[in-house]
């Protein structure tokens, strides 16, 4: 790469507004992170309040095709159109979003692209070059098929045909995949209010009708489950030297228990601060507690996210303006997992672990394994803290799953599943986990089976896991190719284990969906394989979610380079830009099935694949039906659907496919090698949008490791063959032996 040219071109960056109207473009000052180029401008009208994060507005109208990128040419915002196909603007009538977050899907009634190469409609990467930013998480689609893509430098909104709406530069590097929250009335716990019941207390008996049970039912009406209460001044309460609640504490009524005689019912209050419960007679409630008013606020539709500098933020979907940003902790480790929202609560992993729980290889330069230790519930209205919960072990890929009732479930890096009440943070259950282990995978939830599936690795058997004698835990005590993993299914209501399965490779991702192989049988699809490691093999298993029985196994590609596809090629530019030098995703993206039962998945060798039932075959096992080779690995969550559209994120780009079976052949397209690079080289660099490169799944593909590679590599280096511990793993070259000298 001609580094000098690229760096020089940074100063030449001039982004012209598409079409008419000039847009002022400046480079952000270096104090703003300076990590990457981002385009931002002030719109003439001066609309758009900015509170910290920087939003650029592009006020194009969606219907004007003159804003479309020309076919085969990258435009000024980095969009390249590959065929002149118009994707449909659609407005969902039920107000739901097509793809609001990476893990929680109510129903999938969308068809994916059947021919992955012929359906590519447009793509996006950073306007200054493919490696200038790294997307984070899957694309998100709102109720109108608008596509939101989070990346290291900014979050951008495009309409379904690739016309940019706004871009928002958050306060630092994104720490987790953002999610969309639909608009709605939210409970905002703010001002105090007296109970209606208190009024009754001061009235004479006769006025109350001297009817005990009516008073009781009046009180029962006043205290509803879900109400928030606050301890009045002077009403702190101690029992046996233990403080049950103190002035100012807030709690939620989690239940009302009628007394045996039908009078003097009791309320169960769950305290936000301590997580303790108190049972209190209703007639005492009003003396000690005040009601916290439920003020309904209508919130706009928003996108929520978090940054490694500890911020959790919400931006307005229409304008891209920041609605709030809360500094939730000093740092948030990333980039992994996702932020999610439900019922006015944003659930986010925060507080990078810096204590003994993540202190691991003490003879390495950085002995702290990245992970987060707290899960927080924030009010979607203003970002204020509603609850917090410290996990037993740190989390790495923390993806909130909306479980039964008001539960939110997720797993830590040892594969331990937690279920919390997302309104209060109270623990419902905590189960499983193999101490001392580490997984990149995240749990999945099947509402149909009421099962939550934990993915993790089994206790390391190589030894050298003792932290006490020098030199401490050694890198053999870690997850490597061939490390055995587990898949454990738990009852999502009770946490009781339903079944367990051992895997020959560390699990990477999973999904539960109805597949067409055989027709509409629900399968738990588990992918496995160590990520970004020379010679790491991979597999996909189809399991029966009821009992964990294996129905089919597919071999996946083996990574024949020491990097996930694209990470070595992009390293120089990424380092020069000051951002993340590696994307380092999982070996497989989360599998996603469409409404016809086809399974879509991306992998670390840079291939997007569609598996399904071959119509000419009698097999009931899925076959590989279509592949798009990008030469760049895919995000952990990479694939999203809307109506007529499928959008996919790699480690460099967004790729948008049309999915209509009936697309007119009259639309014309260019093959990717047909067009010449960008005509006006505004950026002094003519990296065109390559979407067809070589896969890293072939042993013949370079690059291998060079001696002059400069990685700030804090990851332990280890050859699993030395210990012979992972007996199943022998890094033997299958095609040529000398390619494997690391
Ligand atoms: C799925 O979409 C089709 C066509 O848009 C519609 O007819 C059908 O009712 C939908 N099914 C569900 C379950 O929403
Ligand atoms: C008390 O109130 C209940 C319910 O309102 C009613 O059924 C009952 O007859 C009343 N008892 C007296 C003594 O008034
Ligand atoms: C850590 O200790 C092991 C065993 O003594 C050694 O092989 C390894 O090179 C050490 N690592 C570093 C970074 O010093
Ligand atoms: C899961 O647990 C709940 C609550 O304990 C129970 O009612 C339900 O029957 C269990 N489901 C299964 C499939 O075991």
Please outline what is shown here.
This protein is mostly beta strands and 742 residues long. The protein is built from 6 helices and 42 strands. A hairpin with a 6-residue loop joins strand 34 and strand 35.
**Which descriptor suits the 3D outline?**
globular
Major sheet details: 6 strands, antiparallel
Class from secondary-structure proportions: mainly beta
Q: Portion of residues in helices?
A: under 10%
Number of strands: 42
The fraction of residues in strands falls at: 25-35%
**Spans where pLDDT lies below 50 across 5 or more residues:** 1-51, 189-216, 662-692, 723-742
The largest beta-sheet arranges its strands as: 9-16-10-13-14-15
Q: State the distance separating the first and last CA atoms.
A: 24 Å
Summarize model confidence as the mean pLDDT: 78
Number of helices: 6
Radius of gyration: 27 Å
Bound molecules: 2-acetamido-2-deoxy-beta-D-glucopyranose
How would you portray this structure in words?
There is one protein chain. The chain is mainly β and 742 residues long. Strand 18 and strand 19 (322-327) form a beta hairpin. It binds 2-acetamido-2-deoxy-beta-D-glucopyranose (4 copies). Residues 450, 491, 493-494 line the site of one 2-acetamido-2-deoxy-beta-D-glucopyranose (NAG). Residues 1-22 form the signal peptide. Residues 306-428, 487-554 form the Pyrrolo-quinoline quinone repeat domain. It holds the Pfam family PQQ_2. Residues 685-742 are annotated as: Disordered.
